[in-house]
Amino acid sequence: MSAAAVRLPGLRRRCASMAYESLLILGVLSVTFMLPQLALGMVLGIALPGWVLVIHVFLVLGAYFIWYWHQGGQTLAMQTWKLRLSTPGGARPSLARLVLRYALAWPGVIYLGAGLLWALFDRDRQFLHDRLAGTRVVFAGD
Question: How far is Cα 119 from Cα 128, in angstroms, rounded to an integer?
């Protein structure tokens, strides 16, 4: 199917996928972040500085998202909502493009969701990090 004929999902579907993803991330972070931090604190009496904790979360979530995107173009929530990640031409994004997308998503989410609100004004209703990274979210069947 040509890039022009690909159906793009609406904002409601993508936001529902992100809400579901948030629940899944809680589980991921409880195992890969909270449990190790509790063990360090309770067993060894070590409290890591805040900047180390932020880097830990950034790396854990980066590993989660980039691994899933790279394996099949979808996270678990994207599979549920029948969404996948691609380039505007319909190809699978490269690993470098996926890392860029992940890094660009953080400021867009942290700064009052400005990168997500961008989709209200974007001609294809894509988020700012997708526009900048050269990726887009499409229906998985297309």
Answer: 7
Q: Both tokens of residue 51?
A: 């900047």
The closest of 35, 51, 53, 31 to 43, measured between CA atoms, is 35
| Model pTM score | 0.90
For residue 111 the two structure tokens come to 């700064």
The predicted pLDDT at position 4 comes to 54
The answer to whether 37 and 48 are in contact (CB under 8 A) is: yes
DSSP E strand boundaries for 17-140: 83-86, 136-139
Contacts (Cβ under 8 Å, ≥6 apart) of 127: 14, 105, 108, 115, 116, 118, 119, 137
